[in-house]
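User: quick one
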Amino acid sequence: GQNIDQPTEMTATEGAIVQINCTYQTSGFNGLFWYQQHAGEAPTFLSYNVLDGLEEKGRFSSFLSRSKGYSYLLLKELQMKDSASYLCAVRDGGFQKLVFGTGTRLLVSP
Amino acid sequence: GEEVAQTPKHLVRGEGQKAKLYCAPIKGHSYVFWYQQVLKNEFKFLISFQNENVFDETGMPKERFSAKCLPNSPCSLEIQATKLEDSAVYFCASSQEERAYEQYFGPGTRLTVT
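Assistant: Done. Structure below.
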């Protein structure tokens, strides 16, 4: 079956660092994605990992360990506008569809 | 266009009525995906197209849901005889080519079934 787990909610303070974890068990694997979704809006692409290791993109970094079925999204220098839901998604191996986790709601406070 | 366009933004239907949603992918993108988001964050894949051909329909409820992508027309997702549990936001996404790593999402259509 397909199972992707993330914490439901997290809180952090402006300027801090937060790590959002994602574990997955899927029948196929062809990459792991992180999306940001503000309330009432479409998801926007943040990062993509297909090989083990860390991908850095400005304030956001994403890590993947395929052997452990584990990824995390690291957000540095948090800003109020980072308050959003963060969705972990795995691309099914032979097909292009994304299997999503339930998302992590991040609240950044002053 | 440069963005995925979805219409309408909001749609209200009485239980048992038909609902039809439209999606125009980014120009040049050959893959189109439909997802259903219920209860805030629970995303469910419905169907994908490669140009006008069904690519993967493993997520589609067979009885009441249908979808098409015809040449020179927006793609459509149709729900016959809507039910209360069909209330959700329906997102369309497109990608540039097979195994392209990024799907671009449209703004979604919020369907409310009363």
